[in-house]
Hints:
Layout: E1 6-12, E2 17-23, E3 29-33, E4 36-40, E5 45-47, H1 49-61, E6 64-69, E7 78-79, H2 81-88, E8 92-95, H3 98-108, E9 123-125, E10 130-133, E11 136-142, E12 151-155, E13 158-162, H4 182-193, E14 200-203, E15 217-219, H5 220-226, H6 236-247, H7 256-263
Parallel strand pairs: 3-6, 6-8, 8-9, 13-14
Antiparallel strand pairs: 1-2, 2-3, 4-5, 4-7, 10-11, 11-12, 12-13, 14-15
Helix pairs in contact: 4-6
Amino acid sequence: MTRQAEVTAFYDPRTFSLQYVVADPDTRSCAIIDPVLDFDEKSGQTATGNADRILAFIAGQGYALQWILDTHPHADHFSAASYMKAKTGAPIAIGEKICEVQKLWNGFYNWPAAPKDGRQWDRLFADGESFRIGNLPARVMFSPGHTLASVTYVIGDAAFVHDTLFMPDSGTARADFPGGSASALWHSIQAILALPDETRLFTGHDYRPGGREVQWQSTVAAQKASNSHISVCRSEAEFIALREARDATLPMPRLILQALQINTNAGRLPEPEANGRRYLKIPLDLLKAPWGN
Ligand SMILES: N[C@@H](CCC(=O)N[C@@H](CS)C(=O)NCC(=O)O)C(=O)O
Ligand SMILES: [Fe+2]
């Protein structure tokens, strides 16, 4: 029988993000997945409320933190991976395609000298690579489409599918960021749906359609039966048409230009300038406004 992972979700209502602690009940080793570093774009203030709440939970449970994992370079919030590593000493990891995303965005920010080899992380996972959280087996599946570096972590009987599949009533994630691909997303979703039907799927966002209560957990069987984008598409071509039509209506995430410069650097804030203050850089006329759509 597949080993049961102990999963605790932490919802960030400001960015509609799900952050997870996944633990091995036998050894009480755990990993954090997709922690959020708080940022208010109107004031420019950063904060560690979400991250500290998760670290306090781990301490309270007596868990031993083994890994800090990101599923992808987030476009809508900052990753708290580096902050948490500094606090705990635990290693940080992401999929190895992050290097491609670094190349892309270092170009956009005109930072030719910035590292493009993922050295900011302790480990870059290859497709299919295995590791352990205590005695729980963990496996990395590349899941490109939403971003080209996206991965799914299959840990015991749970899969952390980030922004491939949302809850069944919310469908799938957008695939229109630089490096995104609706076709790749379709294939990534097929691979997730090929996991055993009872696999518990944990999503990366829940936008609470119609104002319903936040939800984050489904199963492969439930997604096959009723995912609002997947169950209505009989082919890859139909899915691409549906996805691209919807993406054409979506404004960019409000923090995309801020988030990518932090998240391609493992969630590290920019170095302070001579006056001791940190600054972000915003490329103009790189992305498209929703005007005219
Ligand atoms: N309103 C949010 C939107 C964020 C967004 O675009 N989220 C991505 C995941 S990172 C997505 O797939 N959204 C799907 C949708 O809005 O339908 C923001 O500005 O941050
Ligand atoms: Fe995302």
